[in-house]
Amino acid sequence: MTAIVDRRPVRAIQPLHAALLAATVPLFLGGLLSDIAYASTFQIQWSNFASWLIAGAMVFTGLALLWALVDLVRAGRHRQRALVYFLLLLATFALGFANALIHARDAWGTMPEGLVLSAIVTLLAVLATGTGFSSLRAAGLHSAGLHTGGLE
Question: Considering the entire predicted model, what is its pTM?
């Protein structure tokens, strides 16, 4: 049995970038759940909750988008992954902005477009977050020298 050591540097996501990115999912999900609650109860306060949660998610998405743009400019050989990540975040931001504008209407005017957009934006946020965190490659164990190879 031999030890395999991967000497390539691991390009992990920065902790602040990770926090900004990770905050988007629960906020957009909270907006979606608030929209679902409003659709089933017609209590106007649920629409207000959704509006505020989406506005908060847009702040974090915008900051993560700026960080992703910087990473895209600095990306070397992993430019394609950085581009996919940036485009997912850009789509999340654009549709999230449209969703925020729809939620700026009165509560009756947000349905059903607000609910549908909240579902789409939540899915995009999950995909963008998964893509962003996938830069933490599993080979990180290799560079620490912790992985041993099989029978050779």
Answer: 0.81
